[in-house]
Specification:
- This is TetR family transcriptional regulator.
- By secondary structure, this protein is mainly α.
- The chain has two domains: about 1-50, Arc Repressor Mutant, subunit A, CATH 1.10.10; about 55-190, Tetracycline Repressor, domain 2 (Orthogonal Bundle).
- The protein is built from ten helices and no strands.
- It has helices at about 5-25, 35-40, 45-50, 55-80, 80-90, 90-100, 100-115, 120-145, 150-170, 175-190.
- Helix 1 (about 5-25) packs across helix 2 (about 35-40) and helix 7 packs across helix 8 (about 120-145).
- The relative contact order is 0.11.
Length: about 200
């Protein structure tokens, strides 16, 4: 990546971070481009240099999250098959902490709420989910040999995804108590034979 490309990427990230903060603070519709520009410390016109609309900003936020998930699944897939389940279980603590982060939870729920009103945003989220589910299920099926990989993937994604709602409803959530329980559930789901 050239210096100019790095600077452009940094400016895009600056806008995405500012927009994320504004969406959490004001909601999607309350976060006009003027507020995003002020938070990003740049002009509205400069933001339009990188993104054509707020929808495009949401798409880029989702894409950025998706790229991180793709990288994590690529790392897992590269491991020998007999190490994958243990590696995933060892990541449970990081996943619980990440999925129960109050800011990220509020942002994700704001984007999901907008998806209920906006078919374009809904399509972006559904495409992201399809991609991540596919990568996850593929690891469970091809690397761990689990024949009901789709159902196991859906259950694990539901369990971890539910933390976003729980932390906003229960800010005193005891993550340290949840981690060993998640690890136990993951051990069962990733190591037990599939039921016929």
């Amino acid at each position: 990546m050239t210096g100019a490309e790095k600077r452009r990427e940094a400016r895009r990230d600056q806008v995405l971070d500012a927009a994320s903060a504004c969406f959490v603070e004001h909601g999607f519709h309350g976060a006009g481009m003027a507020k995003v520009a002020k938070k990003a410390q740049m002009s509205v016109g400069h933001i339009y240099h990188y993104f054509e609309s707020k929808e495009a900003i949401i798409a880029a936020i989702v894409d950025r999250e998706s790229e991180l998930a793709v990288e994590r699944f690529a790392e897992l897939y590269a491991l020998p098959s007999d190490e994958i389940a243990a590696a995933m279980i060892n990541r449970a603590e990081d996943i619980v902490v990440t999925k129960s982060d109050a800011f990220q939870s509020a942002l994700n729920l704001e984007i999901q709420a907008e998806a209920q009103r906006n078919p374009h945003i809904a399509a972006i989220l559904q495409e992201h989910d399809k991609k991540i589910r596919g990568l996850f299920s593929n690891i469970l099926n091809t690397k761990l040999g689990l024949t009901d990989a789709d159902a196991r993937t859906e259950l694990l994604m539901s369990l971890f995804g539910g933390l976003a709602s729980r932390v906003l409803r229960n800010p005193g959530l005891k993550r340290e108590k949840l981690i060993p329980l998640f690890q136990s559930l993951m051990h069962n789901l990733l190591n037990e034979p599939a039921n016929a």
